[in-house]
Amino acid sequence: MIANRLPVLPNPIKGVFFDMDGVLYDSMGAHANAWSQAFHFFGFDFSPEMVYRNEGRTAQSTINLVFQQDKKRDATEHEVLKIYAKKTEIIADFPDAVAFDGVVSLMKDLSEKSISIWVVTGSSQDKFLNALLQDFEGYVDKSRIITGQDVQHGKPHPEPYLMALKRSGLASHEVVVIENAPLGIQSAKGAGIFTIAVNTGILDDQVLWDSGADQVHKDMLGLKF
Is there a contact between 92 and 115 (Cβ–Cβ < 8 Å)? Predict the structure, then answer.
């Protein structure tokens, strides 16, 4: 845990909004490699570090980012479908992601305190969304998941977290977000929500601080609400 800057948590906390990849699951390495390999297959350079820096975007936004950098235009619908299909094909061969230590115990603690649990992810793949319901049965409900299919603007736009606020009926000052990525932090802070970053990836802590995180931790072990 970084101790040089620890703002006071909201009180009372009525909801915790979790990102998925890199927060609930140790899955970002697989996603980074799959995206990088898929783009390389089609002749684009997109390093794993760039994937981490842009985690949270919808698939279309990620692909358009690369096309804008390389071709100065957005990808066509056909190009988006081809590249995303390749990424999906590659990651399907990777081992299933496992939950980080401390996640289930934290959710158990939140549930016992009647604190609402939500997941806000840029992912749209049924494989990962269905795993959420199985791996966190009793804590994560399908009606409390915001996916990339639910929004027009993915992270860093605040829409995903604004939608979670709207659906939950909670105010921004009653909620805490747990994120691991710069764009996710920007999205949550844009929605006016206190944001804890867990640095489970390859980026320097300072990148997360600079993105607006209120706290930065190395993991969720020991987090209490």
Answer: no
Angle between helices 77-92 and 59-71 (to 10 degrees): 120
Dihedral sign computed on CA atoms, order 27, 38, 156, 141 = negative
**Residue 9: per-residue pLDDT:** 85
Fold for the domain defined by 15-27+97-217: Rossmann fold (3.40.50)
- Chain region(s) in the chain for CATH 3.40.50.1000: 15-27+97-217
CA distances to 103, 181, 199, 220 from 136, in Å? 9, 22, 21, 16
pTM of the model: 0.85
Q: Is 126 helix (H, G, I), strand (E, B) or coil?
A: helix
In angstroms, the CA 105 to CA 110 distance is 9
What are 125-169's pLDDT values in tens digits? 777 788 899 999 999 999 999 998 899 898 999 999 999 999 999
Q: Which fold has domain 28-92?
A: DNA polymerase; domain 1 (1.10.150)
List where CATH 1.10.150.240 sits in the chain: 28-92
Alpha-carbon distance of 7 to 10, in angstroms, equals 9
Q: Tell me: the pLDDT tens digits for 169-184?
A: 999 999 999 999 999 9
The fraction of the chain above a pLDDT of 90, given in percent, is 72
